[in-house]
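--- STAGE predict ---
source: upstream dedup step, 1 unique chain passed
mode: sequence only
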Amino acid sequence: MGNKDRGSGTHGRGFGKKGRGAGHRGGRGKTGGQKHEKYPQRKFGKKGFKRPQGVVEEKEVINVGELDQMADYLVESGLASTDEDGNISIDAGDLGIDKVLGSGKVTKPIRVKASDFSSSAEKKIEEAGGGVEKQDE
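--- STAGE serialize ---
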């Protein structure tokens, strides 16, 4: 088995000698990239900024719709309580939740205590007849 089976000897340039040297390409590698190519390449270096891992803080979040669905189960299991008005009081800190987000529907009056709330979560909880309480971390 000879070399004739290993691709084209001309590399699409017709006569064999034409594309043999690096000069035909304008140099080796990315040489002359600013000059010979339509779109110039970014030469060196990194771009952007990445926050140090020690500063980045991951928060555990939950949506108000999920809290609303879980409310009855949380009361049954003793992780939440019901007051005399029928409001269900949930302490998100006991569940390991840092922030309450506003996705979903709130159908029951629930009182939620958490470190942080999104504005839409506060609005939905209060519209359903419940309340929010921010706790210090």
